[in-house]
Automatic annotation (TrEMBL):
SMART domains: HTH_XRE. Gene3D superfamilies: lambda repressor-like DNA-binding domains (1.10.260.40). Residues 6-61 form the HTH cro/C1-type domain. It comes from Aneurinibacillus migulanus (Bacillus migulanus). Keywords: DNA-binding. The keyword DNA-binding applies. GO terms for molecular function: DNA binding. This is Cro/C1-type HTH DNA-binding domain-containing protein. InterPro entries: Cro/C1-type_HTH, Lambda_DNA-bd_dom_sf. The keyword Nucleus does not apply. It holds the Pfam family HTH_26. SUPFAM superfamilies: lambda repressor-like DNA-binding domains.
């Protein structure tokens, strides 16, 4: 996995994306894609300009971890508000499929019956949890967020709902 660490570097330097665009001449769409890790690639001259501007090495701007994952499927289990996800983890050449669970508690609804307050607990198998715990947060947060977003597709949410996320493990 490769991720751009631009968001963290900007926060550390009290900079905004607009500052980078103005000061470097790099297109706003490019900076946004790098900031939100949606970029499919980066030109060497862009990488060089950002490294010079932020006074960092390419290894500080772009983070790498020798593993990959794929969320294969997320389905509601037989129990209401419990989800099961098949999760493919590839590390050190080994491919393992894990079952990850997500339990949802709806704590509030508005007059249109849209959810205003929600708690999601992601429960990883111990082996996968231990591997994810060792990842830099930028990687593990993306994995957690992908699971949460897949679960949220099953619900009708109010504008700006309160969503609490908890991470746990099972044996």
């Amino acid at each position: 996995m490769i991720k751009c660490n631009l968001a963290v570097l900007l926060v550390e330097r009290n900079l905004k994306m607009a500052d980078v665009v103005r000061d470097t001449g790099i297109a706003k769409t490019t900076i946004r894609a790098l900031y939100y890790n949606t970029s499919k690639g980066v030109q060497f001259d862009t990488l060089n300009t950002l490294c010079t501007y932020l006074n960092v090495t390419p290894g500080e701007l772009m983070l790498y971890h020798p593993s990959e994952y794929q969320l294969i499927d997320v389905d509601m289990a037989n129990i209401e508000d419990t989800f099961e996800a098949e999760f493919l983890w590839i590390s050190k050449g080994k491919r393992t499929i894990y079952n990850v669970k997500a339990e949802v508690n709806v704590n509030g609804r508005d007059e249109e019956d849209e959810i205003t307050d929600l708690r999601i607990e992601i429960i990883y198998p111990r082996n996968l949890y231990d591997e994810l715990f060792d990842l830099p947060h930028i990687f593990s947060n993306d994995i957690d967020n992908e699971i949460v977003n897949s679960v949220l597709e099953y619900y009708v949410l109010a504008d700006n709902p309160s969503i609490s996320i908890y991470i746990d493990k099972y044996e």
